[in-house]
């Protein structure tokens, strides 16, 4: 898998592959050492090392662009650098040398005197306008041990100095893949340890596609909801359901650059509202409408502050974790006319009651799977697929057994996704260390028509 | 197969009609695609099933044969289709397919190029991902295979989303009409490195290429070629283990007669 290098060939204001003022971006600092989400506004800033840089220069650049921190007259700033395919060859040059390596590290003594440039010298260079790269070169030139190092440790030294004196920021497009990977790497607990291959399988098993009505129980902060909405492309619905009075937080949805059309399709509804009502249909629709009108006002008051708090909370983590800059939710210029995650409109609820949902995804790592499945599978259309994610096997095994004995579903299967990334280099190809011991388990199946209702009405 | 036509979308009220494609499900490892026709019959080890008994029933119904055997009639999905299509080549399965679709960052409206088409297993999922207004252009140099794939997309109702072309992609590259237009390109070819320079020209900036190869030597050569056209090159191996769940009684040690207790566990299967 690889990404086309960016070239500024396309213009136009609506190009989703070029950033715009107010858009959400994923910033990858120093090759994944730090990952953070930011909203690009004229005033937004990020802190890299001890320097505060404005994000203004990132506006209007193609996703995939790379930036380096430079220090100018008015302080540090982000300067666009050419992200060339030459970077791909760095490792390889080292490789060829390694083959014929005759140096080793027997004569290197680490006594902190190897570097003759002092901090003051470096500051001085900066004042005189040296670029980060020039400083790195100077450090190498003034290192007494550099030439004695093996090619491999020379490269390591260079990278270390580059990260410190010329940190790089890569501008990534926030989409399901990049968002899931970023969370899994830095904050896996926030997304129930859901790996990107597992998420991909959830979307396939649930047959998510335009014009479908997907029911979800998303207790992963909105990662599932966002991923489903991305595949709906502003059609159908993704309805996040919950038991009780409080819908689950879907903060992560704000990191996608969803259109109003897509935001409208992201809704929530309590289990009680979705279940068949005992009373006459007409009255229940009335009640729904009343409830809808009341609740959507409450929503604005109750939901927004809590989402903001959570994002601020993430910002506070300082251990190289995922952070958000300038509170994605509350930047005044970008407040959307339509917020994702409103209450489902009564017509939609009515239609789901009459027709059933197209599919179901459950990701509720803290809850017993069967207690949810037994309520929600009956809300699916006949022949509709469903899939349940759990970090552990046992709850899914129990669930599968119950679904079998109660003849609710067929094609039942428990699967465990497995993923390994490889380093591929001439004569140095090998698997990376296992990405994680487990990407969790999935139970998938297809709802069948209840046998007590085999004839058309 | 896709809910593009609201009248055919899955629903409590949707009934099986003459002309529908259904998946006749015996067991998870035994299924068959069937086009429903008023006078049609399906014959298998469970007996003879008359299609006329199916018409008017909802999808997901259990139906019986003359001998009292039964099957389920399921609505087709790309996942089921991958399990029932006729293998004209090696095909991709769900683990690879789902991963590829996510990594290619395909969303509704995307333009996707693919080669080779093979048996169309992946193409079916690509079509689902670009629907309702995107398009998949898929190429195979094998005329017969391309024609069969076209028939399959007709059968599964995807032909408005997929165009199958006959072309030697390794030799000629993708057609110029797609220059700079593709959001994503997928390759499943014996020598993908020959097609990579052309794929690079077809992609928009920040577009993604994904190449599938069974052998590490192919991967290695592809990576070599990718280096001069792409950044963020990554290589993955994806697998899926399947577990079976069975009910069983485990005896008590105290009650057991040395040597007679048999062990039952959930079995791990790989594919
Ligand atoms: C393994 S199959 C692809 C299977 C497909 N991914 C699927 O899931 O069904 C490889 C296909 O590539 C085609 N092929 C091989 N060389 C080709 C070339 N030079 N140009 C176009 N197609 C080619 C073969 O005819 C074959 O159908």
Automatic annotation (TrEMBL), chain A:
A GO CC term assigned to this protein in UniProt: nucleus
Chief place of localization: nucleus
Biological processes annotated in GO: tRNA methylation
Subcellular location per the Swiss-Prot or TrEMBL entry: Nucleus
Signal sequence residues: none
Pfam families attached to this UniProt entry: Gcd10p (PF04189)
Keywords: Methyltransferase, Nucleus, Transferase, tRNA processing
Highest taxon above the source species: Eukaryota
MF (Gene Ontology): methyltransferase activity
Xref: PANTHER family: TRANSLATION INITIATION FACTOR EIF3-RELATED, TRNA (ADENINE(58)-N(1))-METHYLTRANSFERASE NON-CATALYTIC SUBUNIT TRM6
Protein family according to the UniProt entry: Belongs to the TRM6/GCD10 family.
Subunit description: Heterotetramer.
Function: Substrate-binding subunit of tRNA (adenine-N1-)-methyltransferase, which catalyzes the formation of N1-methyladenine at position 58 (m1A58) in initiator methionyl-tRNA.
Protein name (record): tRNA (adenine(58)-N(1))-methyltransferase non-catalytic subunit TRM6
Organism: Handroanthus impetiginosus
Organismal lineage: Eukaryota, Viridiplantae, Streptophyta, Embryophyta, Tracheophyta
TrEMBL record, chain B:
Limits of the tRNA (adenine(58)-N(1))-methyltransferase catalytic subunit TRM61 C-terminal domain: 69-253
UniProt entry tagged with the keyword DNA damage: no
Top EC class, one word: transferase
A Gene Ontology molecular function term of the record: tRNA (adenine(58)-N1)-methyltransferase activity
Record-listed S-adenosyl-L-methionine binding positions: 119-122, 140, 168, 188
Reactions the enzyme catalyzes: adenosine(58) in tRNA + S-adenosyl-L-methionine = N(1)-methyladenosine(58) in tRNA + S-adenosyl-L-homocysteine + H(+)
Protein name from the UniProt record: tRNA (adenine(58)-N(1))-methyltransferase
Organism the protein comes from: Handroanthus impetiginosus
């Amino acid at each position: 898998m690889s990404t086309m290098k960016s070239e500024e060939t396309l213009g136009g204001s609506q190009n989703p592959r070029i950033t715009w003022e107010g858009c959400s971006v994923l910033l990858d600092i120093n090759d994944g050492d730090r990952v953070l989400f930011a909203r690009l506004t004229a005033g937004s800033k990020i802190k890299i090392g001890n320097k505060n840089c404005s994000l203004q220069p990132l506006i209007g650049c193609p996703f995939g662009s790379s930036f380096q921190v430079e220090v100018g007259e008015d302080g540090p700033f982000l300067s666009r650098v050419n992200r060339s395919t030459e970077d791909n060859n760095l490792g390889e040059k080292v490789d060829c040398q390694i083959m014929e390596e005759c140096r080793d590290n027997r004569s290197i003594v680490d006594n902190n005197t190897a570097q003759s440039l002092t901090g003051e010298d470096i500051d001085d260079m900066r004042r005189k306008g040296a670029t980060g790269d020039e400083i790195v070169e100077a450090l190498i030139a003034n290192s007494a041990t550099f030439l004695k190092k093996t090619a491999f440790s020379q490269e390591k030294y260079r990278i270390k100095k580059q990260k410190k004196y010329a940190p790089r920021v890569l501008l990534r497009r926030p989409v399901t893949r990049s968002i899931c990977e970023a969370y899994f790497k830095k904050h896996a607990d926030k997304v129930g340890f859901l790996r990107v291959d597992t998420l991909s399988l959830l979307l396939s098993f649930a047959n998510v596609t335009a014009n479908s009505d997907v029911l979800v129980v998303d207790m992963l902060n909105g990662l599932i909801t966002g991923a489903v909405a991305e595949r709906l492309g502003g059609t159908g619905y993704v309805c996040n359901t919950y038991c009780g009075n409080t819908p689950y937080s879907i903060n992560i949805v704000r990191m996608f650059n969803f259109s109003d059309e897509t935001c409208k399709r992201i809704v929530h509804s309590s289990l009680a509202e979705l279940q068949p009502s005992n009373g006459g249909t007409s009255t229940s629709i009335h009640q729904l409408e009343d409830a809808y009108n009341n609740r959507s006002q409450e929503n604005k008051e109750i939901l927004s502050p809590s989402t903001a708090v959570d994002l601020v909370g993430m910002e506070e983590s300082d251990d190289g974790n995922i952070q958000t800059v300038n509170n994605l939710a509350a930047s005044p210029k970008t407040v959307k006319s339509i917020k994702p995650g409103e209450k489902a409109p009564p017509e939609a609820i009515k239609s789901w009651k009459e027709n059933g949902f197209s599919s179901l995804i459950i990701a509720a790592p803290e809850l017993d799977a069967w207690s949810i499945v037994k309520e929600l599978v009956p809300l699916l259309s006949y022949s509709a697929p469903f899939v349940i994610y759990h970090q552990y096997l046992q709850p899914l095994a129990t669930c599968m057994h119950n679904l079998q004995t109660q003849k609710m579903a067929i094609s039942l299967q428990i699967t465990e996704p497995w993923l390994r990334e490889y380093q591929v280099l001439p004569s140095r190809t090998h698997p990376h260390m296992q990405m994680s011991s487990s990407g969790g388990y999935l139970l998938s199946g297809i709802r069948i028509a209840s046998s007590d209702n085999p004839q058309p009405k | 197969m896709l809910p593009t036509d609201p009248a055919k979308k899955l629903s409590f009220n949707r009934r099986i009609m003459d002309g529908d494609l259904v998946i006749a499900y015996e067991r998870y490892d035994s299924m068959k695609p069937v086009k429903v026709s008023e006078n049609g019959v399906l014959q298998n080890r469970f007996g003879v099933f008359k299609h006329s008994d199916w018409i008017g029933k909802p999808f997901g119904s259990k139906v019986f044969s003359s001998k009292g055997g039964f099957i389920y009639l399921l609505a087709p999905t790309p996942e089921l289709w991958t399990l029932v299509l006729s293998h004209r080549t090696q095909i991709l399965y769900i683990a690879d397919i789902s991963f590829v679709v996510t990594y290619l960052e395909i969303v509704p409206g995307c333009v996707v190029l693919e080669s080779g088409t093979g048996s169309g297993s992946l193409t079916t999922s690509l079509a689902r991902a670009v629907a309702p207004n995107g398009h998949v252009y898929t190429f195979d140099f094998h005329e017969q295979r391309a024609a069969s794939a076209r028939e399959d997309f007709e059968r599964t109702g995807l032909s408005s989303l997929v165009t199958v072309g006959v072309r030697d992609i390794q030799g000629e590259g993708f057609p110029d009409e797609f220059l700079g237009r593709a959001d994503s390109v997928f390759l499943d070819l014996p020598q993908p490195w020959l097609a990579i320079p052309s794929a690079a020209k077809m992609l928009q900036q920040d577009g993604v290429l994904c190449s599938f190869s069974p052998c590490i030597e192919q991967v290695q050569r592809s990576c070599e070629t990718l280096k001069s056209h792409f950044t963020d090159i990554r290589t993955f191996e994806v697998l899926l283990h399947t577990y079976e769940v069975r009910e069983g009684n485990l005896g008590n040690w105290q009650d057991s007669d040395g040597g007679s207790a048999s062990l039952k566990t959930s079995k791990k299967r790989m594919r």
